[in-house]
Amino acid sequence: MIMGKITAAITAVGKYVPDYALTNKELESLVETNDEWIVTRTGIKERRILKDSDKGTSYLAIKAAQDLIAKRGIDASEIDMVIIGTATPDMNVASTAVYVATEIGAVNAFGYDLQAACSSFLYAMSTASSYIESGRYKKVLVIGADKMSSIVDYTDRNTCIIFGDGAGAALFEPNEEGLGFQDEYLRGDAVGREFLRIEAGGSLKPTSQETLDKRQHFIKQEGKTVFKYAVSNMGDASEKLLKRNNLTNDDVDWLAPHQANQRIIEATARRINLDKRKVLQNIQNYGNTTSATLPLLLADFEDKLKKGDNIIFAAFGGGFTWGAVYLKWAYDSKKN
Predict the structure, then answer these.
(1) What is the 3-state secondary structure (H, E, C) of the chain?
(2) pLDDT in tens, 30-80
(3) What superfamily would CATH give domain 182-335?
(4) Which of 24, 175, 258, 261 is flagged as catalytic?
(5) Whether residue 245 lies in the annotated active site
(6) Active site residue 288
(7) pLDDT in tens, 3-36
(8) What is the CATH number of domain 7-179?
(9) pTM of the prediction?
(10) Is 310 among the residues known to form the active site?
Protein backbone atom coordinates (compact mmCIF):
# COMPACT_ATOMS: atom_id res chain seq x y z
CA MET A 1 0.00 0.00 0.00
CA ILE A 2 1.40 3.39 -1.07
CA MET A 3 1.67 5.83 1.83
CA GLY A 4 -0.39 8.94 1.21
CA LYS A 5 -2.93 7.14 -0.95
CA ILE A 6 -6.45 7.45 0.45
CA THR A 7 -7.86 4.25 1.85
CA ALA A 8 -11.11 3.74 3.74
CA ALA A 9 -10.65 2.93 7.41
CA ILE A 10 -13.10 2.03 10.12
CA THR A 11 -12.71 4.69 12.82
CA ALA A 12 -15.57 3.79 15.18
CA VAL A 13 -18.11 1.06 15.83
CA GLY A 14 -21.39 0.82 17.72
CA LYS A 15 -24.05 -1.79 18.48
CA TYR A 16 -27.49 -2.49 19.80
CA VAL A 17 -29.26 -5.71 20.71
CA PRO A 18 -32.69 -5.92 22.37
CA ASP A 19 -32.92 -6.77 26.06
CA TYR A 20 -35.13 -9.82 25.64
CA ALA A 21 -33.22 -13.10 25.30
CA LEU A 22 -35.01 -16.03 23.70
CA THR A 23 -33.27 -19.07 25.19
CA ASN A 24 -33.08 -22.60 23.85
CA LYS A 25 -35.13 -23.69 26.86
CA GLU A 26 -37.97 -21.40 25.85
CA LEU A 27 -37.84 -22.68 22.27
CA GLU A 28 -38.43 -26.18 23.63
CA SER A 29 -41.96 -25.06 24.49
CA LEU A 30 -42.57 -23.78 20.94
CA VAL A 31 -41.17 -26.53 18.69
CA GLU A 32 -39.84 -30.06 19.00
CA THR A 33 -36.22 -29.37 19.93
CA ASN A 34 -33.89 -29.19 22.92
CA ASP A 35 -30.92 -27.23 24.15
CA GLU A 36 -28.34 -29.95 23.45
CA TRP A 37 -29.58 -30.44 19.88
CA ILE A 38 -29.43 -26.71 19.13
CA VAL A 39 -26.01 -26.09 20.71
CA THR A 40 -24.45 -29.16 19.09
CA ARG A 41 -25.62 -28.25 15.59
CA THR A 42 -25.45 -24.46 15.66
CA GLY A 43 -23.50 -23.24 18.70
CA ILE A 44 -26.40 -20.96 19.64
CA LYS A 45 -27.51 -20.67 23.28
CA GLU A 46 -29.81 -17.67 23.00
CA ARG A 47 -30.84 -14.94 20.59
CA ARG A 48 -32.13 -11.40 21.21
CA ILE A 49 -35.65 -10.50 20.11
CA LEU A 50 -37.24 -7.06 19.64
CA LYS A 51 -40.60 -7.75 21.22
CA ASP A 52 -42.19 -4.34 20.52
CA SER A 53 -44.59 -4.84 17.61
CA ASP A 54 -44.47 -1.13 16.76
CA LYS A 55 -40.67 -1.08 16.30
CA GLY A 56 -38.83 -2.29 13.22
CA THR A 57 -35.30 -2.60 11.88
CA SER A 58 -34.90 1.19 11.93
CA TYR A 59 -35.15 1.18 15.73
CA LEU A 60 -32.23 -1.23 16.00
CA ALA A 61 -30.21 0.76 13.46
CA ILE A 62 -30.85 4.09 15.15
CA LYS A 63 -29.72 2.73 18.51
CA ALA A 64 -26.51 1.29 17.02
CA ALA A 65 -25.78 4.56 15.22
CA GLN A 66 -26.34 6.59 18.37
CA ASP A 67 -23.98 4.31 20.26
CA LEU A 68 -21.28 4.88 17.63
CA ILE A 69 -21.82 8.65 17.50
CA ALA A 70 -21.56 8.95 21.28
CA LYS A 71 -18.38 6.85 21.44
CA ARG A 72 -16.71 8.66 18.53
CA GLY A 73 -17.78 12.05 19.79
CA ILE A 74 -18.89 13.40 16.44
CA ASP A 75 -21.82 15.56 15.38
CA ALA A 76 -24.24 13.56 13.24
CA SER A 77 -24.40 16.46 10.81
CA GLU A 78 -20.80 15.58 9.79
CA ILE A 79 -21.96 12.29 8.30
CA ASP A 80 -22.12 12.40 4.49
CA MET A 81 -23.83 9.13 3.77
CA VAL A 82 -25.71 6.28 5.47
CA ILE A 83 -25.84 2.76 4.03
CA ILE A 84 -27.99 0.16 5.75
CA GLY A 85 -27.43 -3.49 4.95
CA THR A 86 -30.67 -5.28 5.74
CA ALA A 87 -32.96 -8.07 4.62
CA THR A 88 -35.82 -6.71 6.75
CA PRO A 89 -36.40 -3.03 5.87
CA ASP A 90 -39.17 -1.24 7.75
CA MET A 91 -41.29 -1.19 4.62
CA ASN A 92 -41.05 -1.60 0.87
CA VAL A 93 -40.19 1.42 -1.29
CA ALA A 94 -39.45 3.88 1.54
CA SER A 95 -35.74 3.61 2.38
CA THR A 96 -34.95 2.63 5.95
CA ALA A 97 -31.56 4.35 5.67
CA VAL A 98 -33.15 7.71 4.90
CA TYR A 99 -35.39 7.43 7.95
CA VAL A 100 -32.47 6.43 10.18
CA ALA A 101 -30.33 9.33 8.89
CA THR A 102 -33.12 11.79 9.69
CA GLU A 103 -33.74 10.35 13.14
CA ILE A 104 -30.07 10.49 14.19
CA GLY A 105 -29.67 14.06 12.94
CA ALA A 106 -27.53 13.27 9.88
CA VAL A 107 -29.14 16.21 8.09
CA ASN A 108 -26.38 16.51 5.48
CA ALA A 109 -26.38 12.83 4.50
CA PHE A 110 -28.01 10.85 1.74
CA GLY A 111 -28.63 7.15 2.15
CA TYR A 112 -30.05 3.93 0.85
CA ASP A 113 -30.60 0.28 1.75
CA LEU A 114 -28.45 -2.55 0.43
CA GLN A 115 -29.90 -6.08 0.32
CA ALA A 116 -27.60 -9.06 -0.20
CA ALA A 117 -29.03 -11.27 2.57
CA CYS A 118 -26.35 -12.26 5.10
CA SER A 119 -23.64 -10.71 2.90
CA SER A 120 -25.24 -7.25 3.06
CA PHE A 121 -22.76 -5.69 5.49
CA LEU A 122 -19.80 -7.18 3.62
CA TYR A 123 -21.00 -5.71 0.33
CA ALA A 124 -21.79 -2.41 2.06
CA MET A 125 -18.20 -2.27 3.34
CA SER A 126 -17.02 -2.49 -0.26
CA THR A 127 -19.44 0.22 -1.36
CA ALA A 128 -18.54 2.59 1.47
CA SER A 129 -14.84 2.12 0.85
CA SER A 130 -15.21 3.01 -2.82
CA TYR A 131 -17.03 6.24 -1.91
CA ILE A 132 -14.28 7.18 0.56
CA GLU A 133 -11.43 6.29 -1.81
CA SER A 134 -13.02 8.41 -4.55
CA GLY A 135 -12.52 11.46 -2.35
CA ARG A 136 -16.15 12.51 -2.65
CA TYR A 137 -17.11 11.80 0.96
CA LYS A 138 -15.32 11.88 4.30
CA LYS A 139 -17.68 10.08 6.66
CA VAL A 140 -19.79 7.12 5.55
CA LEU A 141 -21.84 5.34 8.18
CA VAL A 142 -22.51 1.67 7.45
CA ILE A 143 -25.10 -0.15 9.54
CA GLY A 144 -26.01 -3.83 9.43
CA ALA A 145 -29.43 -4.33 11.00
CA ASP A 146 -32.15 -6.94 10.89
CA LYS A 147 -35.32 -7.71 12.80
CA MET A 148 -35.31 -11.36 11.78
CA SER A 149 -38.08 -12.19 14.24
CA SER A 150 -40.45 -10.35 11.87
CA ILE A 151 -39.95 -12.98 9.15
CA VAL A 152 -39.35 -16.13 11.22
CA ASP A 153 -42.04 -18.78 11.60
CA TYR A 154 -41.90 -19.87 15.23
CA THR A 155 -43.55 -23.18 14.34
CA ASP A 156 -40.68 -24.08 11.98
CA ARG A 157 -37.84 -25.59 13.99
CA ASN A 158 -35.47 -25.42 11.01
CA THR A 159 -35.37 -21.62 11.12
CA CYS A 160 -36.71 -20.37 14.46
CA ILE A 161 -33.71 -21.72 16.39
CA ILE A 162 -31.24 -19.85 14.20
CA PHE A 163 -32.17 -16.20 13.88
CA GLY A 164 -32.12 -13.20 16.20
CA ASP A 165 -32.47 -9.41 16.07
CA GLY A 166 -29.70 -6.82 16.33
CA ALA A 167 -27.68 -4.04 14.72
CA GLY A 168 -24.08 -2.97 14.42
CA ALA A 169 -22.56 0.17 12.92
CA ALA A 170 -19.16 1.18 11.54
CA LEU A 171 -17.90 4.61 10.48
CA PHE A 172 -15.63 4.75 7.44
CA GLU A 173 -13.22 7.69 7.03
CA PRO A 174 -10.18 8.47 4.85
CA ASN A 175 -6.78 7.14 5.94
CA GLU A 176 -3.33 7.92 4.53
CA GLU A 177 -1.30 5.42 6.57
CA GLY A 178 -2.16 2.42 4.43
CA LEU A 179 -4.69 1.18 6.97
CA GLY A 180 -8.32 0.22 6.41
CA PHE A 181 -9.79 -1.52 3.36
CA GLN A 182 -7.18 -3.49 1.42
CA ASP A 183 -8.90 -5.99 -0.88
CA GLU A 184 -12.09 -7.92 -1.56
CA TYR A 185 -13.32 -11.07 -3.26
CA LEU A 186 -17.10 -10.90 -3.79
CA ARG A 187 -19.25 -13.38 -5.69
CA GLY A 188 -22.82 -14.54 -6.32
CA ASP A 189 -24.60 -17.47 -7.92
CA ALA A 190 -28.35 -17.76 -8.52
CA VAL A 191 -28.16 -21.51 -7.95
CA GLY A 192 -29.13 -20.56 -4.38
CA ARG A 193 -32.30 -18.67 -5.28
CA GLU A 194 -34.57 -21.55 -4.25
CA PHE A 195 -32.67 -22.79 -1.20
CA LEU A 196 -32.96 -19.75 1.08
CA ARG A 197 -35.88 -17.44 0.45
CA ILE A 198 -39.22 -15.89 1.34
CA GLU A 199 -41.62 -17.22 -1.27
CA ALA A 200 -44.20 -14.42 -1.36
CA GLY A 201 -44.50 -10.68 -0.87
CA GLY A 202 -42.37 -9.64 -3.82
CA SER A 203 -43.33 -8.75 -7.39
CA LEU A 204 -43.07 -12.39 -8.50
CA LYS A 205 -45.73 -13.53 -6.02
CA PRO A 206 -47.55 -10.56 -4.48
CA THR A 207 -49.33 -10.85 -1.18
CA SER A 208 -52.73 -12.51 -1.37
CA GLN A 209 -55.03 -14.39 0.96
CA GLU A 210 -53.63 -17.59 -0.51
CA THR A 211 -50.00 -16.69 0.25
CA LEU A 212 -50.98 -15.71 3.79
CA ASP A 213 -52.85 -18.96 4.32
CA LYS A 214 -49.86 -20.94 3.05
CA ARG A 215 -47.49 -19.04 5.39
CA GLN A 216 -45.33 -18.02 2.44
CA HIS A 217 -44.17 -14.76 4.03
CA PHE A 218 -41.72 -16.44 6.41
CA ILE A 219 -38.11 -17.28 5.66
CA LYS A 220 -37.47 -20.86 4.56
CA GLN A 221 -34.26 -22.70 3.88
CA GLU A 222 -32.95 -26.09 2.88
CA GLY A 223 -30.40 -26.29 5.65
CA LYS A 224 -28.13 -29.05 4.36
CA THR A 225 -27.74 -27.44 0.94
CA VAL A 226 -27.12 -23.98 2.36
CA PHE A 227 -24.60 -25.41 4.83
CA LYS A 228 -22.66 -27.16 2.05
CA TYR A 229 -22.41 -24.04 -0.12
CA ALA A 230 -21.59 -21.77 2.86
CA VAL A 231 -18.73 -23.96 4.08
CA SER A 232 -17.24 -24.24 0.60
CA ASN A 233 -17.60 -20.62 -0.49
CA MET A 234 -16.66 -18.78 2.73
CA GLY A 235 -13.51 -20.86 2.98
CA ASP A 236 -12.72 -20.48 -0.70
CA ALA A 237 -13.14 -16.69 -0.67
CA SER A 238 -10.95 -16.33 2.43
CA GLU A 239 -8.23 -18.54 0.97
CA LYS A 240 -8.21 -16.63 -2.32
CA LEU A 241 -7.77 -13.30 -0.50
CA LEU A 242 -4.82 -14.63 1.48
CA LYS A 243 -3.09 -15.96 -1.62
CA ARG A 244 -3.73 -12.82 -3.64
CA ASN A 245 -2.23 -10.63 -0.91
CA ASN A 246 0.66 -12.99 -0.08
CA LEU A 247 -0.64 -13.50 3.45
CA THR A 248 0.07 -16.60 5.52
CA ASN A 249 -2.13 -17.73 8.38
CA ASP A 250 0.47 -16.19 10.72
CA ASP A 251 -0.12 -12.81 9.07
CA VAL A 252 -3.84 -12.92 9.85
CA ASP A 253 -4.62 -11.52 13.29
CA TRP A 254 -8.37 -12.11 13.21
CA LEU A 255 -11.03 -13.89 11.22
CA ALA A 256 -14.43 -12.16 11.45
CA PRO A 257 -16.83 -14.71 9.94
CA HIS A 258 -20.55 -14.40 9.44
CA GLN A 259 -22.23 -15.91 12.50
CA ALA A 260 -24.55 -18.39 10.81
CA ASN A 261 -23.50 -21.67 12.35
CA GLN A 262 -20.69 -22.80 14.65
CA ARG A 263 -19.65 -25.54 12.24
CA ILE A 264 -19.46 -23.14 9.29
CA ILE A 265 -17.28 -20.79 11.35
CA GLU A 266 -14.95 -23.63 12.33
CA ALA A 267 -14.75 -24.96 8.77
CA THR A 268 -13.80 -21.51 7.42
CA ALA A 269 -11.02 -21.21 10.01
CA ARG A 270 -9.72 -24.69 9.15
CA ARG A 271 -9.66 -23.83 5.45
CA ILE A 272 -7.06 -21.12 6.08
CA ASN A 273 -5.42 -23.09 8.90
CA LEU A 274 -6.14 -20.41 11.49
CA ASP A 275 -5.78 -20.89 15.22
CA LYS A 276 -9.24 -20.86 16.83
CA ARG A 277 -8.02 -18.17 19.24
CA LYS A 278 -7.94 -15.80 16.25
CA VAL A 279 -11.58 -16.43 15.35
CA LEU A 280 -14.09 -13.82 16.52
CA GLN A 281 -17.32 -15.44 17.63
CA ASN A 282 -20.48 -14.38 19.47
CA ILE A 283 -23.06 -16.65 17.82
CA GLN A 284 -23.79 -18.25 21.19
CA ASN A 285 -25.26 -14.95 22.45
CA TYR A 286 -27.14 -13.63 19.43
CA GLY A 287 -27.71 -16.41 16.91
CA ASN A 288 -27.68 -15.35 13.27
CA THR A 289 -28.57 -11.65 13.08
CA THR A 290 -28.04 -11.71 9.30
CA SER A 291 -26.72 -8.27 8.21
CA ALA A 292 -25.70 -7.41 11.78
CA THR A 293 -23.32 -10.28 12.55
CA LEU A 294 -20.10 -8.72 11.24
CA PRO A 295 -20.45 -5.27 12.85
CA LEU A 296 -21.62 -6.87 16.10
CA LEU A 297 -18.36 -8.84 16.13
CA LEU A 298 -16.38 -5.61 15.73
CA ALA A 299 -18.29 -3.92 18.53
CA ASP A 300 -18.03 -6.87 20.91
CA PHE A 301 -14.31 -7.43 20.32
CA GLU A 302 -13.25 -3.82 19.75
CA ASP A 303 -11.01 -3.82 22.83
CA LYS A 304 -8.98 -6.74 21.43
CA LEU A 305 -8.34 -5.10 18.07
CA LYS A 306 -5.05 -3.23 17.66
CA LYS A 307 -3.93 -0.68 15.11
CA GLY A 308 -2.47 -2.51 12.12
CA ASP A 309 -4.20 -5.84 12.80
CA ASN A 310 -5.01 -7.83 9.67
CA ILE A 311 -8.67 -8.87 9.67
CA ILE A 312 -10.35 -11.19 7.18
CA PHE A 313 -14.13 -10.83 6.97
CA ALA A 314 -16.15 -13.61 5.35
CA ALA A 315 -19.88 -14.01 4.77
CA PHE A 316 -22.42 -16.08 2.90
CA GLY A 317 -26.08 -15.32 2.25
CA GLY A 318 -29.20 -16.17 0.30
CA GLY A 319 -29.23 -15.71 -3.42
CA PHE A 320 -26.50 -17.01 -3.12
CA THR A 321 -24.17 -14.12 -2.21
CA TRP A 322 -20.76 -14.48 -0.58
CA GLY A 323 -17.28 -13.12 -0.31
CA ALA A 324 -14.39 -11.97 1.84
CA VAL A 325 -12.78 -8.64 2.67
CA TYR A 326 -9.24 -7.91 3.87
CA LEU A 327 -8.97 -4.90 6.18
CA LYS A 328 -6.23 -3.43 8.37
CA TRP A 329 -7.58 -2.12 11.66
CA ALA A 330 -6.94 1.61 12.03
CA TYR A 331 -6.96 2.35 15.77
CA ASP A 332 -6.39 1.11 19.27
CA SER A 333 -9.82 1.28 20.87
CA LYS A 334 -8.61 2.37 24.29
CA LYS A 335 -6.92 5.38 22.68
CA ASN A 336 -9.83 6.27 20.41
Answers:
(1) CCCCCCEEEEEEEEEECCCCEEEHHHHCCCCCCCHHHHHHHHCCCEEECCCCCCCCHHHHHHHHHHHHHHHHCCCHHHCCEEEEECCCCCCCCCCHHHHHHHHHCCCCCEEEEECECECHHHHHHHHHHHHHHCCCCCCEEEEEEEEHHHCCCCCCHHHHCCECEEEEEEEEEEECCCCEEEEEEEEECHHHCCCEEECCCCCCCCCCHHHHHCCCCCEEECHHHHHHHHHHHHHHHHHHHHHHCCCCCCCCCEEEECCCCHHHHHHHHHHCCCCHHHECCCHHHHCECHHHHHHHHHHHCHHHCCCCCEEEEEEEECCCEEEEEEEECCCCHHHC
(2) 998 999 989 999 999 999 999 999 999 999 999 999 999 999 999 999 999
(3) Thiolase/Chalcone synthase (3.40.47.10)
(4) 258
(5) no
(6) yes
(7) 568 999 999 999 999 999 999 999 999 998 999 9
(8) 3.40.47.10
(9) 0.96
(10) no
